[in-house]
Amino acid sequence: MVMEDLTNVDRNRKYISDGLQAVKMTFVQDINEMNTAPRYSPDMVYQHFGEEETIYGYADLEVTIHHSAQTLYSYINICYSSKAKNDNGLEADDIEDKLVHIDVRPNVLVTEKGAFNQKLISQKNFQPYGEMVHKFQSKGKNFEVYRVTEQSEDFNLFLERIQTLGMFFIECCSLTDNTEENWLHYFIYERCDTGEGDGSTIAKVAGFATLYKFYNYFEKVRPRIAQMLLLPQYRKSGIGAQFMESFLRDLRATPEVFDVTVESPGDQFTFLRDYVDCINCMNLPEFSSENLKNGFSDKMRMAALDKLKISKAQSRRVYEILRFRQTNKKDKEDLKAQRIDVKRRLYAPMKRSERDWKRLNLALTQEELRQAACGEMDEETKFSTLTQMYDRLMESYQKTIDRIEAHPKIF
């Protein structure tokens, strides 16, 4: 009986695939590129296949999601050597059903290869939505950034397709209701020559950002970045920072914008945002080396807010990164002063009453608040906790500093 059970376990195991390994994506312009186009892995598939991110029912599974490079329609190709029988109530996953939700399937998924080819042919006439707010060159490629505020049916369907794609790369990504007028979108495209010799060009989608404009006092708004995605073929090249800086410049030039905030940022987004904000603040006299040494000030906070639309909490974080960057690590006194300055901020929640926590939300990140919720700790435990928090924070700051040293300019 035991041997039979083990045999069944081994038999079932070969039909369990790691979704992150099995699923690949392409972005193609022509039907002939489907076999040769670079394959990219998603960052996550838990929204599709559950927390374990596994696919059941297929041996040697390969799932390729082909996307039209301009319009982002999808065609799925599934290959496997054998399929599990429906034993013991276990059925093979319906992969297409799990990859594309039924509500958006008619808009996103093309089930016939011939129909997908027609999408590829017709996408040559695609034009970006909205108004171009910036363009730049990067490593020999041309990019354009567009602001979109419209609510047309065509754009809403296009947005639905790219947000469906975003679920493979953005934590807790969801579809937004674009009929709500407070949504604001930015898209980045690579402008490419068609190769037809007549000077004609096409625009390939490179990424997008979605923001929600919250109302602030005195007829101001506080745009909050809810989603940002750079497609995998454009990553690790500096384009993400250039895209962020492009749409931030547009927001800074908008009089009604008070500041720009972020909703539940992941580690990679935080790293990108820190880099962009640090590069910009380094050009402000309020963040000079001498001023950094004297500690965070209202002048720094107001300069970051007025000139760069950076919130108070983020300007404090930028100050700490830049001060750590200029701190002489071999000078014990210099390093001690920097360490005390940071720990003083981290220690604040440990000695405050409950009525102060709302105010402290402005000074600490959510992770720091969770780690610092230890008002009942004894002094020894508090000291140990502070040291761990400080060390982890400096480790993350150093990653930003390393990027600043390697790339002191965004453009």
UniProtKB/TrEMBL annotation:
Superkingdom assignment: Eukaryota
Keyword entries, A-Z: Acyltransferase, Nucleus, Transferase
Main localization of the protein described in the UniProt heading: nucleus
A single GO BP: subtelomeric heterochromatin formation
Domain Histone acetyl transferase HAT1 N-terminal: 16-171
Enzyme class: transferase
InterPro entries: Acyl_CoA_acyltransferase (IPR016181), HAT1_C (IPR048776), Hat1_N (IPR019467), Hat1_N_sf (IPR037113), Hist_AcTrfase_B-typ_cat-su (IPR017380), Hist_AcTrfase_HAT1_C (IPR013523)
GO molecular function annotation: histone binding; histone H4 acetyltransferase activity
EC number assigned by the record: 2.3.1.48
Domain Histone acetyltransferase type B catalytic subunit C-terminal per the UniProt entry, residue ranges: 273-324
CDD domains in the record: NAT_SF
Keyword Chaperone listed: no
GO terms under cellular component: chromosome, telomeric region; nucleus
Family named by the database record: Belongs to the HAT1 family.
Protein name, per record: Histone acetyltransferase type B catalytic subunit
Annotated organism of origin: Caenorhabditis briggsae
Gene name per UniProt: hat-1
